[in-house]
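Appendix B. Chain record.
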Amino acid sequence: MTGLIKIAWVAVFAGFVCNAAIAAEESSAEVTTQMPVQGDLPKILSAYGTAVASTNGAMTLSLPVEGRVMRVLATAGESVHAGQALLEFERSAAATSAYRQAMSALQLALGEQTRMTRMLVQQTATRDQKAQADKAVADAQSALDALKIETGGTARQTLAAPFDGVVGALAIAQGDRVAAGAPLLTLVRTSGVVVTVGIEPADRSKVEPGQPVQVQPLSDAAIRHDGRVVRIDHSLNPKSRLIDVDVAVTDELLLGDAFRADIAIGQLHGWIAPRDAVLDDDAGAHVYQITDTKAVRIGVKRLGDADGKTVFEGPLDVARPLVIAGNYELADGMRVREKPSDGADTDDGAAKPARDDRGSPQR
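C-alpha cells predicted for this chain:
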C-alpha cells in the first residue's frame, strides 16, 4: 500500500514538472536573429516626374519659303530616323516666280559677260566693264544657289529628318498654307530626353549637378535606368509649386512616361538590418537584442530606409544577437527562443540605397 502511495506522489510531481515546463515554453516567443552589422548606404531623395525633351534636345523644323503642305508623312510621337521623309511641301506661285526670276537674271548676266569678253578682245570695252560683268554673273549665281538651297530647286520638295528622333508636335495639317519660316513640326533627338522631377524647396540645397540617380518607370517597377542630375531650377514651378530638376539617362525613354527618380544626396553610416527589425511606438524607434534568453529593448534613431533595409544608430552590443523577426510580440525582459537567420539578411546592404522620404510626387 505504501508503495502505491509513493508511485502516486511521483506521478503527481512529474505532472507538475511537465505542466511547468509547458507553461514556461508557452510564455516564451520564438524569434529570428542575426548579429549586428554596421555599414554605409547612400542617402536617397525620391522625387517624381515625367520624360520631356531637354532644352537642346529638340529642333523646330521650318522652310524659308511660303507654300502649301501637300502631304504629312509622320505623326506626333512617331520614332523616325535620319533622312526619313516627314512631309511634302509645294512652293507658292510667288516663290516659284522668284526662283524663275533668279534663273533669268543669271542667263542675262552670262549673256552680258560673253558680250563684254568679246568686246574686250576687240578693244571696244574696258577691263572695268568686263570685271563688272563678271561680278554680275557671280552675284546672280549666288542668288540662284541660295534659292536652290532654300527650295530644293524644284516646285515640290520633301522635308526629311536631320537626325534620329521622335516627332514631338505637328504645327500643321495636310493642305495648310504656311508662311516662310513658319514652324512645321518639332523633332526630339533620341538622346535628348530627360526626366524632369519635382523636389521640395527645402531639399534644393541637397541636390547638385552630377549626382547619380536611379530612374524607375512607374509602369514597371522592375526596370531601372542609371542617370545623373544635369539641371536644377532656381524658381518654383508655377503648377506643381516644386523645384524642377532634370535627370539625364543613357537609355532611350518614352516621352511623357511617368518616373520616380532616386537621387543619391549623401552617405549614411550606422547599424544596418532588415526593415522589420526596427519598430516604432509612442516611446520611439527601438530594436530588441537577446541577453541570457531574454529580450532587451534598446532605443534607436532611424536614419533612413532602404529597399527592405533600415540604417539606424543606437547603443547596440555587437556581441549579442539582434532580433529581426518575431519582435512584434516581444516586451522588455520577455523570454525568447532564439532561431538564427539563414544568412539571407546578414549582408550589410551596401548596394541598397537608404531613402529620404521627403521627396514628393508632382502635384
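Further analysis of this model is presented in Appendix C.
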